[in-house]
Write a sequence for this structure.
């Protein structure tokens, strides 16, 4: 077992930032990649620049925002069913 | 001789020996059974085997064709992986019942007619409940009862459907049925329960997370996939399945985002994945059914892998609540890595298994002109990455350090997870091996520039959304809580309603008692000879007096009815 005192790379805030900025860089690359190939689309809007990127981002943001509202209706204490 | 046994029987019969064996011999026996079973399966050529005549019906125990074979293959592979995982446990109850469960699942997908299918799904229901009860807590006992009630209930629906169907057609053959009459509708609903259709789904998310560490892994793979098989066989091209499937991909992800129990998050995402299969079956074209079957194949492994990793976390830390976990990559780096592979697979990253399976269903939806369904499936694809792909590994292994320091998972578990992870990647890199065993010839190339780039855009921007929400603090924190779902109806609303009705009845009873007493006292007997005859309305009210009163009322009604 490792000692709890051991320092890990991800324990540092600036390294977490690095992960985030790397993700941003990857996003930029796949988004700009749309300029460099010919899309084979089934549906017309698939050909729009960055359609999938936009849809994925918006889908996830709305998913979380709606789920957050759902909590107000659905969430109960952990022992709700116990008595 | 051995070839005469239906596929799966080697596991069912072999289970009997398990309690008699000890140590390495026991482990070896457990692993040999699926291998023997697989070897036996390879000996079958397409056709029907094992005809038995009972009550004038000729039952066909076994039918082997491409559709049954692909499910039988993956069930054997899953069984082997899960048994390796389970070697850490020396629990005869779980091992014997798990073997019977898997064996009957294999027999069910190879069943030659409706009656044989029903018999094996019933054996599955009864054997699998022990995987929940084996947790040996009161909570698990109650969950097991709920599970059993619903499973047996769906079995009765199936039986009723078959009886009506046989009455109308005189045939017990299990080929394409379609929603043609009451019988086929009942069979459809029965399969819908096992498949976790919306509103019929809740047994799954309610009870799977209450099973044992190994139990949940086994449960995740077989019941729903047998139902998908049966739908593909009997209801391919039934349009309503497209909408049911699309709804199944959508609604569970909202629950998954706010759920704290990480195995329950996976249970919701199990429904979400089965939704893709159901939608594929509903579209019903060769590509769509291929996609549904292929996705079922991949799902057994990657969903098994995810449940295995969360099982290992539960075993080592004693909890599976997102609110209490975090930072476990420090203690369980291998488990974390395998979990991430499972997460990448379920999210359909290029080079991972779902990338080459799920996309067939989505492509088929667009190809057949189901635009709205296409949008829904794409939303669900982004969502599954969000809740299963990121949330599971993030809250268990990263997030804030919970301070928990534990051992890495046991070796047998690591081996099972490693093999599963390798298979997830293997299927993703070499799709042709899977494509070759699908029911129809595959005319689909997953690795096109368009598909790879658009899929990466979808997933990476979903990840960006997650990172943005976490960093901005908008993301809902993991909280110790339960979320209401359909089970609220039978766990809270129905009992409350019954209690309310009983209370009202008690009020009525005391009213009668009171008036009865008053009338008695006013009556001649009561006035002339107080105490000579016991006042029947005095004393504590019992159910007995109430029953007596009800009987009298009914009797009076009957007598009045005579005139």
């Amino acid at each position: 077992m490792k000692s709890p005192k051991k320092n890990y790379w991800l324990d540092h805030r600036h390294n977490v930032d690095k992960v985030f900025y790397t993700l941003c860089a990857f996003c930029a690359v796949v988004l700009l990649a749309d300029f460099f190939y010919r899309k084979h689309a089934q549906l017309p809007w698939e050909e729009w620049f960055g359609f999938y990127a936009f849809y994925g981002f918006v889908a996830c943001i709305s998913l979380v925002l709606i789920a957050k509202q759902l909590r107000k209706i659905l969430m109960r204490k952990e022992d709700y069913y116990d008595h | 001789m051995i070839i005469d046994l239906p596929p799966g029987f080697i596991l069912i019969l072999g289970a009997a020996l398990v309690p008699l064996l000890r140590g390495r011999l026991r482990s070896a026996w457990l692993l040999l059974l699926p291998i023997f079973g697989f070897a036996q399966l390879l000996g079958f050529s397409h056709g029907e085997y094992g005809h038995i005549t009972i009550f004038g019906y000729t039952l066909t125990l076994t039918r082997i064709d491409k559709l049954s074979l692909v499910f039988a293959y993956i069930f054997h592979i899953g069984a082997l992986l899960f048994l390796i995982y389970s070697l850490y446990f020396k629990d005869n109850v779980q091992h014997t019942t798990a073997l019977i469960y898997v064996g009957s699942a294999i027999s069910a997908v190879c069943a030659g007619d409706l009656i044989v299918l029903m018999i094996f799904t019933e054996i599955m229901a009864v054997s699998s409940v022990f995987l929940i009860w084996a947790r040996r807590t009161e909570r698990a006992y109650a969950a097991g009862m709920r599970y059993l009630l619903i499973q047996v209930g769906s079995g009765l629906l199936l039986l009723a459907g078959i009886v009506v169907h046989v009455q109308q057609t005189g045939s017990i053959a299990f080929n394409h049925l379609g929603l043609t009459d009451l019988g086929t509708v009942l069979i459809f609903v029965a399969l819908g329960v096992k498949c976790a259709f919306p509103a019929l789904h809740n047994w799954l998310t309610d009870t799977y997370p209450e099973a044992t560490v190994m139990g949940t892994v086994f449960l995740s793979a077989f019941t729903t996939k047998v139902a998908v098989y049966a739908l593909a066989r009997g209801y391919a091209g039934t349009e309503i399945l497209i909408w049911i499937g699309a709804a199944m991909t959508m609604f569970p992800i909202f629950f998954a985002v706010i759920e704290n129990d990480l195995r329950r998050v996976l249970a919701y995402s199990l429904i979400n994945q089965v939704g893709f299969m159901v939608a594929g079956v509903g579209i019903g074209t060769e590509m769509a059914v291929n996609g549904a079957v292929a996705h079922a194949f991949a799902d057994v492994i990657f969903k098994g892998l995810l449940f295995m990793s969360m099982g290992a976390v539960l075993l080592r830390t004693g909890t599976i609540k997102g609110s209490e976990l975090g930072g476990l990559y420090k203690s369980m780096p291998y488990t974390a890595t395998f979990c991430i592979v499972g997460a990448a697979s379920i999210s359909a990253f290029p080079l991972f298994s779902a990338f080459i399976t799920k996309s067939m269903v989505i492509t088929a939806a667009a190809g057949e002109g189901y635009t709205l369904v296409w949008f829904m499936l794409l939303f669900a694809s982004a969502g599954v990455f969000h809740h299963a792909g990121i949330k599971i590994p993030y809250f268990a292994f990263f997030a804030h350090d919970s301070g928990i320091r534990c051992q890495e998972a046991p070796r047998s578990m690591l081996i099972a997870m490693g093999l599963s992870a390798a298979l997830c990647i293997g299927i993703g890199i070499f799709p042709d091996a899977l494509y070759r065993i699908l029911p129809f010839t595959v005319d689909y190339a997953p690795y096109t520039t368009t598909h790879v780039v658009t899929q990466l855009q979808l997933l990476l921007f979903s990840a960006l959304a997650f990172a943005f929400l976490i960093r901005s603090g908008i993301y809902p924190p993991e909280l110790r809580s339960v979320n209401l779902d359909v089970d609220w109806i039978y766990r809270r609303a129905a009992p409350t309603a019954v209690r309310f009705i009983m209370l009202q009845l008690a009020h009525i009873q005391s009213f009668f008692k009171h008036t009865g007493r008053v009338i008695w006292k006013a009556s001649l007997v009561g006035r002339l000879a107080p105490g000579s005859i016991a006042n029947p309305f005095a004393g504590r009210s019992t159910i007995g007096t109430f029953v007596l009163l009800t009987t009298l009322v009914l009797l009076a009604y009957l007598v009045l009815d005579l005139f």
Summary: Chain B touches chain A through 57 residues (CB under 8 Å).
